Automatic annotation (TrEMBL), chains A, B, C:
Catalytic reactions of this protein: a UDP-3-O-[(3R)-3-hydroxyacyl]-alpha-D-glucosamine + a (3R)-hydroxyacyl-[ACP] = a UDP-2-N,3-O-bis[(3R)-3-hydroxyacyl]-alpha-D-glucosamine + holo-[ACP] + H(+)
GO MF annotation list: N-acyltransferase activity; UDP-3-O-[(3R)-3-hydroxyacyl]-glucosamine N-acyltransferase activity
One record GO biological process: lipid A biosynthetic process
Known pathway: Bacterial outer membrane biogenesis; LPS lipid A biosynthesis
Record protein name field: UDP-3-O-acylglucosamine N-acyltransferase
Organism: Vulcaniibacterium tengchongense
Active site, per annotation: 241
SUPFAM superfamilies referenced in this protein's UniProt entry, alphabetically: Trimeric LpxA-like enzymes
Length: 338, 338, 338
C-alpha cells in the first residue's frame, strides 16, 4: 500500500484504455478481485470469475466493454483486460537491483569478455571465450562454459548452467536450475556396448525467449538446437538435440520434445505433452496436456490423446475392454471401418 | 555393526510394541528381511514379502500380530510395522553434523538475518531482507533471494534455490536442485508477441513439509502459492503459480499441478499424474500414476485415466480401434448410453 | 575447417572400413549430409535421409554397402555407419582441458581424499570421507556429500550433487543438475501425520554409465539403489529408491521408475514412460514413449499403453465412448472375450 500511486485517469491515458467512473481514483497496487482493496486495481478476464465482480472491493477494475456495464465502480475498459493488467502490474513489480560489475568471488576465464554494464553474481564461473553483453544479469551460482554468448539484457536468475556453445539472443530470461547445452542423448550400440556419438553442435536461443526452472535443452549433434524468438518454455521441460521451435510458441510445464523434431510458430504445447523425435508440427498447433504426438502434424488445430478421468472402478472395466477392442470390432464386422 | 546397541526389550518399551521371544536380543542396526543378520532388525509390512520371513536371519523382526504366530524368532509386534520400523531405524541413521555458524565463503546481504544457531554452508548466497531462523541448515550452494524466510529447524540439503518471497515454516526439508519462488508461467498475447504478466506473489510452505530433488514450485501471480502443513512432494514435481495443496497430501515423483488448482487434504497423487489448472480436488482423493485430472473432483475416492500396458502388436490393434470407437458405438445404437 | 586433417584412406585403415573413391580425399570435420562441404565427412544410416545423399556436397560419406553403389563420391563403407561415424567424429570433438589440481575456492573436508590426478573445479564442496580418484573431473559448483566415491576417469560436468553414500564406478559421466543419493520418498502414516522412514542405503553406479541433466536417483532405504555397468539415462529422469537397472539399458528423457522396481539388461525405456514400484522387467524389453508399466514383464519384446493422437474433436468422441466401453461390450455379449 506504499510506494508510487497512479490515478485511474493516468492509467487510462498511459495504456490507451477506456475510463468509467472516478478518474481520480488512486491505485497503489494490484490484487485479485477477491482480495483487492480500495486503492488496488484488479482485473476480470476469465468469465469464470465474473461472479466475483459484484462483491469486489477493488478501487479500480480492468475489464471488457461488456462487463463494464454491469459494474458500478471505477473501471478501465480494455479489449484484452489480461494484457492491460499485465502492463499496469509491471508498474508495481519489485525488481531487485543488480548493479553492474563482477562479484569478487566470480571465477572468470581470462579469455572471456564481460561487458562493464553486465552484472555477474557470487560464485559464478565463466569459461574460455564466452561473452556477457551489456545489461545482462548472471545471477549467483551460474556456470557458463566455453564459447557461450549471453546477449544484451539477458537475465540468468540464479544457478543456470550453459554447458558449451550456447548463444543467447537479447533479453532472454532463464530461471534457476535450467541447463542448456548439455550433450544430447546420442548413442550407437557396438559389440553389445553403448558408444557415445559426439555432440558437436550448440544451442541458439532467439531474442525475448524465456526458459523455465529446471528445464533442459541439449546441444545439437552436428547442427544446433534452435529456439526462434519469443519462445516461452515453462518449468521442467526437456528439449532434445537438434530440435527447432518456431517463434512465439509456448510450452507448458513438464512437456518434452525428442531429438530432431521441428515445432512451428505460435504453437501451444500442453503440460506433460510429448513429441516424438524427427517429427514436424506446423504453425498454430495446440496439443492438449499429456498428449503424445506420434506423427507429424500438417494442419493447424487442436490435437489430443489419452482417455478421460474416471473413478477407478469404472476405469478398470473400460481399461479391460480396451484390450478386447479389436475382437469387439471384428464381431461387429467393423473391419473396414475408419 | 558398530555403534549403539539396543535390546529387543528396550525397543519394545521405547516404542510401545509387543515383545515375543528373547527380550535380551541385541540390535545394532536395521536391514531388509533378506539381508539382515543376527544383530539386525528387519520388518514385515507388505504381505508380498511374507515368504521371506521363514528364511530371514534377522535377529529381531517387527511385524503384525497375525504374522507373529508364524515366526519362531524374536519379534516386536506392532499395529503398523512400517511406522514402528521407521522410528527404530531413525536410531541408526547417520546424521552429518552441521555446526551452527556461517561458512566464510557465504555471501550474505547486510540486511539479511541469520540466527546464530543456524548453519550456512559454503557458497551460499542470501539476499536482502531474508531471515534464517534458529537451527536451520542451509547446505552448500543454496541461493536464497530477497524477502525469504527459512523457519526454525528447516533443512535445505544443498543447491536449493528460493528465488524471492518464499516463506518456509518450521522443520521443512528441501532436497537438492529444488527451485521455489520462480516466476510463474504468466503470459498474455498482445499484437502477436508474448507479454509477461508480473508475478507479484510468493510461496508459503507450512511446517513439516518435504520437497524433493529438482522439484519446482512457482510463486503466485498475485496471491501466494501455498503448501499447507505436512505436505510431502517427491522429486521432479512441478507446482504452478497460485496452487494450493492441503495438509498431509503426498505427491509422487514427476507429478504436476497447473496454475490455480486446489488440492485437498490427505490426497495421494501418483507418479507422473497431472492436474489441470483452476480445478479443485476435495480431501482424500487418490489419483493413480500417469492419470490426468481434467475436471474437479468432489467425492473422495480413487481416480484413473489411461489404458493398460499391452504387447505392442496387440496395442496397435486396440489403438486403431480406439479411433473408430464412436462409429462402432453408433453401429450398436449406443448413442444414448452412458 | 581448421585443425587436424585425415585422408579417407587413413580413416578407412584406422576404423576398419571399406573405401570407395578417392583415398586421398581430406577430412577436416564432420557435418550432416545437408550441410557438409568438400572437406567434411557425413553419414547415412537412417533410410529416411537417403534422398539427401544425391545432393550432398560432403567430401566423404560413411554408409552401408547397399547405399555405396548409388553414391558417386568418396565413401567409407561400414556395417554400422552410425557407430563408425561416432568414432570418426570423436577425432574432431573439442574437449576443454581440465588440468589436474584443486581450484583454490573449493571447500574440501580434511577427511576427504582427492587424487593428485583429479580435477576439482571452482565452488566445489567435498564432504567427509569422500574420495575422488585419478583422472576424475569434478566441474564447477558440484556438491559431493559424505562417504561418496567418484571413480577414476569420471566426469561430473558441473553443478552435480552426490548427497551421501554414492559410489560411482569408472568413467561415469554425469551432466549438470543431476542429483544422486537424495533421501528416497519413504513415508509411513502415523496418527494422521507423515513419518519419515530413514533412508540408510546408498547409490551404486557401474562403470561407463551416463546420467543426464537434472536426472535424480534416490538412495536406497536399506539396500542400495543400483545401476549396473553401461546404463544410459537421458535428462529429467527419476529413479526411486532401491531400483536396480541392468547393464546396457538406456532410458529416454523424462521417464521414471518407482521404488524397488527391477529393470533388466539391454532394455530401452521410451521418453516419459513410467514403471510402477516393486515390478520386474526382464532383459531386452522395449517400452514405448509415455507408456506406463503396471505389471511385471517376463517376456522380451515391445510394450505400449495409451491412445493414438487425434484431432481434438474426434478424440472427444472416442474418449466419451471409452467411458461406455463396458456397456458397449456387454451389449455385444462380449463378457467372456479376451
Amino acid at each position: 500500500m506504499s510506494g508510487t500511486a497512479y490515478t485511474a485517469a493516468e492509467l487510462a491515458e498511459r495504456f490507451g484504455l477506456g475510463l468509467r467512473g472516478d478518474g481520480a481514483a488512486r491505485v497503489r497496487g494490484v490484487a485479485t478481485l477477491a482480495q483487492a482493496g480500495a486503492e488496488q486495481l484488479a482485473f476480470l478476464a476469465n468469465p469464470k470469475y465474473r461472479a466475483q465482480l459484484a462483491d469486489s472491493r477493488a478501487g479500480v477494475v480492468v475489464l471488457r466493454e461488456d462487463d463494464a456495464a454491469a459494474h458500478a465502480g471505477t473501471a478501465l475498459v480494455a479489449r484484452d483486460p489480461y494484457a492491460a493488467f499485465a502492463r499496469i502490474a509491471a508498474l508495481f513489480e519489485p525488481r531487485p537491483r543488480r548493479a553492474p560489475g563482477i562479484h569478487p568471488s566470480a571465477d572468470i576465464d581470462p579469455s572471456a569478455q564481460v561487458d562493464p554494464g553486465a552484472h555477474v553474481g557470487a560464485f559464478v564461473s565463466i569459461g574460455a571465450r564466452s561473452r556477457i553483453e551489456a545489461g545482462a544479469v548472471v545471477g549467483p551460482g551460474c556456470v557458463i562454459g566455453e564459447d557461450c554468448v549471453v546477449g544484451a539484457g539477458c537475465e540468468l536468475v540464479a544457478r543456470v548452467t550453459l554447458v558449451t556453445r550456447v548463444r543467447l539472443g537479447r533479453r532472454v530470461t532463464i530461471h534457476p536450475g535450467a541447463v542448456l547445452g548439455a550433450a544430447g542423448f546420442g548413442l550407437a550400440m557396438e559389440h553389445g556396448r553403448w558408444l557415445n556419438v559426439p555432440q558437436l553442435g550448440g544451442v541458439v536461443v532467439g531474442d525475448d525467449c524465456e526458459i523455465g526452472a529446471n528445464t533442459t535443452i541439449d546441444r545439437g549433434a552436428l547442427d544446433d538446437t534452435v529456439l526462434e524468438e519469443d519462445v516461452r518454455l515453462d518449468n521442467q521441460i526437456q528439449i532434445g538435440h537438434n530440435v527447432r521451435i518456431g517463434a512465439h510458441t509456448a510450452m507448458a510445464g513438464c512437456s518434452a520434445v525428442a531429438g530432431s523434431a521441428k515445432i512451428g510458430r505460435y504453437c501451444l504445447i500442453g503440460g506433460a505433452a510429448g513429441v516424438l523425435g524427427h517429427l514436424e508440427i506446423c504453425d498454430k498447433v495446440v496439443v492438449t496436456a499429456m498428449s503424445l504426438v506420434t506423427h507429424s502434424i500438417r494442419e493447424p488445430g487442436e490435437y489430443s490423446s489419452g482417455t478421460p478421468l474416471m473413478d477407478n472402478r469404472s476405469w478398470r472395466k473400460s481399461a479391460a475392454r480396451f484390450k478386447q477392442l479389436d475382437a469387439i470390432a471384428r464381431r461387429l464386422g467393423a473391419r473396414g471401418a475408419d
